[in-house]
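Write out this protein's structure.
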Amino acid sequence: MSKLLSRLRPYSPAKDGEFDAVKAAHLLNRAGFGGTEDEIRRVMELGPVEAVEWLLDFPDAGAEEISQDDVPDLSNVEGYPKNYREIRELTRDMTEEERKAYRQKLMRANRAAVLVTSAWWVKRMAVGPYRLQEKLTLFWHGHFTTSARDERSAMLMWQQNELLRRQAAGNFGEFVLNISRDPAMLDYLNNQQNRKQKPNENYARELMELFTLGIGNYTENDIKEAARAFTGWGHDGDNFTFRKNDHDNGDKQFFGRRGNLDGHDVIDAILDHRACAPYIAGRLFSFFAYENPEPEITQRLGQVLREDKWDLRPMLRALFTSQPFYSDKAIGTQIKSPVQLVVGTSRLLGLEPPVGRSLGDALAKMGQVPLEPPNVKGWPGGRDWINTSTLFVRYNTAARMVGGNGMVGRGARGGAGISLDGMSGKPAYEIADAWIARLIQRPIESEKRRVLIESLGEKPSDESVKKMVQLIVSTPDYQLC
């Protein structure tokens, strides 16, 4: 035990160095989408422990508590009412035949509604009050993957997005049960068609391979038996339904359990499996800290998860306050995802996030459109974000956001925008250093710094500052966080 604890000891400023601006920015980048100078100062004042408590302080709201402001506005989508909540109101008293006809009408406008919902989420990530909740929602979207390319209901994709958000740091066992009953997931992995006469194994397979255990921790027979247990699980519109006549009531054997097992029994058995907790801990650590974590780290975090009866917050707290999270292996080593790049640039510069087709086109070319992961494995991430074509688009997207050119809404979202910002008359090196600290948030090579200083000219102006900022966001350093 002492070895495991030593590999995941809490970060200590006394032992591990000052909790400075670089470390504070690192926490805000990984547990969110970046921090402004004021936010970095606040995190430094709070310290590593209290800062994590602040980030974890968000509501696990139920579906009935979603406010009107938190629903995508579809009023400009022809064929849709103003938002998804109105659809529920309209269809509540319809007959099944009337609902079916109405949904067919909505299908014609579905693609446009997906794009609006995707842009709504990007804006929520950029300006929403709970940055860690949104970052976790993005993580779970790539973990419990469903894609609008295959799920033909924009409403069900939004409904799943809300499920991911309210379960983001809740109880993982409840999360697995609820995602197993989620209509978009039931469609995406074909459990809607899972019947005793012809069991469909897709969901049972991915539940173990990708969602809970990882390859090598189950057998083909386990998949077959789990699929039988999930027979009859489906949905009627946007609600889960259990079709008892389609359920296989026969004897099943799964992970040492035997009897007329159903999906609840399978999920309980999976949670009892020794591989489950370290697997989930490892996926979260890889996303938030660095890839391929040491087995001791995943085992220790998994132990925290099990000891706290699958509540995710204590494990997340241990992750974000650990020494490995603040190690050189973690800081400034993660390639920003396209969403991180766009949302982070918006946050750091106080800009409105891109809107409309320009946003969708840019994210598509960079390889990450929210609500549209490429397959059930989600986005591969890491070095896969970068190739010769995507790198060019990444540089151009960030530079265009700085320069305008139709990529952003009007003006800045507060702050002084991109200008000398009170530094008129200051030497060029001070201005450059201030912007490097604001955007890259860690030291850069002296030659790169020199180029940025020279770009300001002998008499720095608002225009030369904007050009320098465009250079900064087009550097390899800015692609990392």
